[in-house]
Amino acid sequence: MNRKFTAICAALLLLVALSLQFAMRSAISTFTFALADDQPKCIYLTFDDGPSDRVTPVILDILKEEGVKATFFIVGERAETRKYLIKRESDEGHTVAVHSYSHRYSDIYASRESIIDDIIKCNRLIYEVTGNFSTLYRFPGGSFFAGDRLKEAVTEKGFCYVDWNASFRDAEFVNPEPQQLVEAAIETAAGQNRVVMLAHDSTDKSATAAALRDVIAYFKKNGYEFRQF
Ligand SMILES: [Zn+2]
Asked: Distance from the CA of 182 to the center of ligand 1, in angstroms?
């Protein structure tokens, strides 16, 4: 395990603790990373539940125009007929990581074996398309769904998992206006120097794509560096 990988794992574990608070619907986390003065403010844009023909290409176009890299936590079942989008994500320099193959909570969270099988199945597709297995994982719904036993099962297999500490809240609003999502992204990230932003690129999230440019503009203007896992 090299130093960079170890550092990433340490950062991810911190985020897990942080996101627990967030996910419990305390709305906005009060946790702030302790960063030295010379360390830049940074934001990781993450997109879950894609790819979709309708939303993913729009998001990729915007990211390209803005010169921003992101991390896509994909759903394997949805990617089977859209491998070209996973290829495009990878070819354009974004990180493709495991979210789930089926995204069916009742199957995934049934046992240690079922969660690992689901991850492996998704990862096989990632390997087939990109030539690389991912070691990065996001639990469907967040790690608080998993419990210690399943979290252990995932880390024992060599995966780092990452939650989030800010969100477009695009899985919570019903038919949101893009501006609502922009405001949610800004509000939930308030006061944090290190932001892991949750958004979705599944087929019903066109408002997310419509909000993305303004969110990027806000964080650029406020001195954040965009990073990918
Ligand atoms: Zn999901």
From this structure: 20
